[in-house]
Write a structure and sequence with these properties.
Chain lengths: 275, 610
């Protein structure tokens, strides 16, 4: 059949064309643009999709079939589609659920443990310790008031061998963890990171502007203080009023310890106004 | 006959119900594992082996897909009915009726899954359901009332079809309208529950109704309502197309081939028209999510879910290419003698589409491996960055829409010659309009890089969308006018499409369904370990998000199950259809040679190009 012969010619021509496009794309993405491997593969696949579409446009019709045969063909067709889809999804970098599990454990475990009578005492003891520790730090913080010393304690744990300093570092680390877990960065900026859209005030110098108790008051009751220049946000009750329920007292304390360590006077931080 | 048919479908339903009950009850009965100590209220129950979350995942997805189908089909049917009245073409009325017939059985199946889902949720997630009932109880009542209204209207609409022909057709159309209004509200009420979980608005004071209303009108409620409404039309259209494609593949004779070829065309057409505005709705939704909660936006677009959007781009890409391909096949096969003329434009369109898709799937920033990230120069690769930003994406999605629209116009016009004197001018005007639109979209897209984001989002992107909408809304009626007076040079030949046309229709439907399952996963996973974002934590053992590869397997399973259910629904509906007229009745009497192509209303039987 003449039609078939000419289709083979078309097939070869378009395969060559598509292959050429794929090679060009591969060279471009790999050696010119240095795309990650996944994207190199994606672009080659797109060339393949285009080639197949273009070839199919002129492919001769296969003789139709009906009944069971058609049904089987369809199921096979679906199996191929689903297989490709699943394979594609597996080929992409996989997110590791363990990462999130670890994060969840930090939030959930203490609460679960609290319901478990056996672990209750251990938890209680730990929190008493933590509380005592944080109170000690709090006092020190107020007494010293030196940002540099605290920064040093944070950055260089155990370097000086000074026990309270190391503890402060731990505490600040724990506080930073709380800050991340509670996603304060959604609205606040510290060290230039967080809230792209400037929803809430920058907090780089908050340690110089607010006393720890005042911060605690603000977190547990956002109505208690207002950042200067954020009247609109304050009136719209932008800062959520939920941390009192979500966080334990200790968690708030370590968070405050972290915030109190933020004393970078070079970054303009809105003044808190008592309401 | 009617009597027997009812019995048969009752049995079919009984069988389905039993199977489902077993599938659900066995694991539940086995397990009943409560993970709270005695005394405290049970927060979760689990199902060993399968896991409670997987079961909910599957049942909820089936219910959601069925609901999309049940809400999409009335829109589809109603539009077909109107077209039938306007054009006087009886085929449309028949098609509308054929699909409305499906509604009664699919409605029951949807409700069945809804019921199963509700019981499972109450059983497996009591803590969450308690909380949601507390917030939303009033809207549960509204939901029930809507169900009554919808069911009553549906029965009137379906059983009144034949008796309301002629002078009462207006009343019937009004019923169809009502049906769609109720259906819309049935969709948006549960949407409020789902969107509340992602973007909750909780007020402490106020009455029960005030609290429920505040929670209902949450920031992502309307974007999701609109996005889903359109997506449901798309789903309805493509499923109709897939059904027709299947029937076309298995057609026994010429009449059937003609009928199902035409039906496939209508289904694809409605699907494509829904597809065109969908990316806009998608972007609006994404913007609202970002505005409500930046973290959630980042999780979706730049965090661990960002790879998912590559799959999404792939699926949408194949959907766009598949729909265009079907148009192109139509031009080349249904309109004899037009292959040579249209080859070049088709190739050009294919290339533009592929380039656009390439840009679309290029992400802005990704959590790659550290080494990759370094290679990319931080998270912003110079080139990934350029193509990955919103400006580029908006631009290419607008271009893709324009290209698809051009395919359709080209198809519409093929084989016709304008006769009106003003036609030449009008045609040139359309060309100029399209050209200007493309230029404006591209210029704004490039310019978008040099203006502040807020200007771009508020003015440039909006202008792009408005320009494209303007083109769609002016060129379509203008072409319609032109075609009314046009002389047909080559009659459209139905029933000669090659078999792969049927496969493309099936492919498109599968892509849409996979897309819906994928986005369902996106919506749930973007909440990470929260039941209600920022308000109620998920403390079950399944709080973490499953990995993409694993999720994809469940999505494929869900897609397959849904296809089976739809096949079942069509099968149940076909039981009565054999006696009731429709396309199949003549089919059995005139057994023509199955392989010989049929010619529709056209006398010119030119089939030489097969
Ligand atoms: C181009 C940009 C698009 C973006 C950014 C986008 C984004 C999203 C997001 C974030 C969701 C989850 C929302 C939710 O249900 O809570 C969603 C849902 C959905 N999207 Fe899109 N979408 C886009 C285009 C499309 C297109 C072209 C389709 C085509 C069919 C589509 C189909 C759907 C469907 C069916 C859902 C509902 C899934 C479900 O919740 O069950 N989207 N989309």
């Amino acid at each position: 059949m003449a039609g078939e012969r000419s289709f083979i010619a078309i097939l070869i021509k378009r395969l060559l064309l598509g292959g050429f496009a794929a090679v060009v794309l591969l060279i471009l993405t790999r050696f010119v643009f240095h795309f990650p491997p996944v994207f190199q593969a994606m672009f080659v696949l797109y060339a393949g999709l285009g080639t197949v579409t273009f070839i199919l446009l002129d492919a001769p019709a296969v003789s139709p079939f009906g009944g069971v045969k058609a049904l089987v063909a369809l199921v096979v067709f679906y199996a191929v589609l689903a297989g490709t889809f699943i394979a594609g999804a597996n080929f992409l970098p996989q997110y590791d659920p363990m990462v999130e599990k670890g994060k969840i454990d930090k939030i959930v475990k203490p609460k679960l443990a609290a319901t478990d009578k056996g672990k209750m005492d251990a938890l209680l003891k730990r929190s008493v310790e933590l509380n005592a520790q944080s109170q000690a730090i709090m006092k020190r913080l107020e007494a010293l008031g030196g940002a540099d010393k605290l920064k040093a304690a944070e950055g260089d744990k155990g370097g000086g061998g000074d026990a309270p300093k190391a503890a402060a570092g731990d505490l600040i680390g724990l506080g930073k963890e709380q800050y991340d877990l509670q996603e304060c960065y959604n609205c606040h900026k510290i060290g230039g990171k967080g809230s792209v859209k400037k929803r809430g005030p920058t907090m780089d110098n908050i340690g110089n502007l607010m006393k720890p108790e005042e911060m605690k008051e603000k977190i547990t009751n956002p109505r208690s203080w207002m950042a200067e220049g954020f009247e609109k946000e304050y009136n719209k009750k932008q800062m959520p009023d939920k941390y009192k329920e979500l966080m334990t007292d200790q968690e708030i304390d370590v968070l405050v310890a972290y915030l109190a360590s933020l004393k970078d006077a070079s970054v303009e931080t809105p003044k808190p106004i008592k309401k | 006959m009617e009597h027997i048919r009812n019995h048969r479908s009752v049995y079919a339903y009984a069988a389905l119900f039993l199977v489902l009950v077993f599938a659900v009850a066995m694991p539940v009965g086995l397990a009943w594992a409560e993970d709270a100590p005695a005394g405290a209220a049970t927060e979760y129950r689990d199902i060993p082996g399968m896991g409670s979350r997987n079961l909910i995942w599957i049942v909820a997805q089936q219910h959601l897909l069925l609901a999309g189908f049940v809400l999409g089909v009335p829109i589809f049917a109603w539009v077909c009915e109107i077209v039938g009245v306007r054009t006087g073409d009886q085929r449309y009325d028949k098609l509308a009726k054929e699909f409305t017939k499906l509604l009664t059985s699919s409605y029951a199946t949807t409700a069945l899954f809804g019921g199963i889902l509700l019981f499972l949720l109450i059983g497996l997630y009591p803590k969450l359901m308690n909380y949601l009932s507390d917030v939303f109880f009033p809207s549960f009542l509204v939901y029930c009332a809507l169900f009554l209204l919808e069911t009553a209207t549906l029965y009137l609409y379906w059983y009144g079809w034949d008796s309301m022909q002629g002078s009462k057709k207006g009343l019937h159309l009004f019923l169809g309208f009502l049906l769609n209004v109720f259906a819309f509200f049935i969709m948006i009420v549960p949407n409020s529950w789902a969107t509340f979980q992602a973007s909750p608005v909780v007020i402490a004071e106020g009455s029960m109704w005030a609290r429920a209303w505040a929670a209902t009108w949450n920031p992502t409620w309307w974007p999701v309502n609109i996005h889903r409404l359109i997506a449901n039309v798309v789903l309805g259209g493509y499923i109709c197309g897939a059904y027709a494609g299947l029937k076309y593949l298995m057609a026994q004779n010429a009449e059937e081939r003609v009928h199902y070829d035409w039906m496939g065309y209508v289904g694809n057409f409605i699907g494509v028209f829904g597809l065109l505005p969908l990316p806009f709705a998608g972007y609006w939704l994404m913007r609202e999510i970002y505005q409500y909660n930046q973290q959630m936006g980042i999780t979706l677009m730049g965090g661990f879910l960002s790879w998912l959007f590559i799959l999404q781009a792939m699926l949408i890409g194949i959907l766009f290419v598949g729909s265009n391909y079907y148009f192109w096949l139509g031009i080349m096969h249904r309109i004899p003698g037009s292959e040579a003329r249209y080859r070049r434009p088709i190739l050009a369109m294919l290339v533009i589409l592929l380039v656009c898709l390439g840009v679309w799937m290029t992400p802005h920033s990704l959590v790659a491996s550290l080494e990759e990230a370094r290679k990319m120069g931080g998270t912003h690769h110079p080139l990934l960055g350029v193509f990955g930003v919103m400006s580029a994406k908006m631009t290419v999605s607008n271009l893709m829409i324009l290209v698809t629209f051009m395919s359709f116009i080209m198809y519409w016009r093929a084989g016709k010659e304008e006769t009106a004197r003003w036609a030449k001018v009008a045609k040139a005007g359309q060309g100029v309009l399209l050209g200007i639109a493309v230029v404006v979209v591209v210029v704004l897209g490039v310019w978008g890089y040099f203006v502040p984001a807020i200007t771009r989002i508020n003015y440039f992107s909006t202008t792009q969308v408005l320009v494209v909408l303007f083109v769609l809304l002016t060129v379509t009626p203008l072409t319609g006018l032109l075609m009314k007076s046009a002389r047909t040079t080559t009659e459209m030949v139905w029933g000669v499409m090659p078999g792969r046309a049927g496969y493309v229709l099936v492919l498109n439907a599968v892509m849409v369904i996979l897309l819906m399952t994928l986005m369902g996963y996106a919506r749930s996973s973007s909440r990470v370990h929260w039941h209600v974002y920022g308000v109620m934590q998920d403390t079950s053992q399944y709080a973490y998000s499953p990995a993409l590869g694993y999720a994809a397997a469940i999505m494929a399973l869900n897609t397959f199950l849904f296809c089976l259910l739809v096949a079942f629904i069509f099968w149940v509906a076909s039981m009565g259809g054999e006696k009731k007229g429709g396309p199949t009745d003549t089919a059995h009497t005139k057994a023509k040679d199955a392989a010989s192509p049929a010619v529709g209303s056209a006398p010119a039987a030119s089939t030489g190009h097969q």
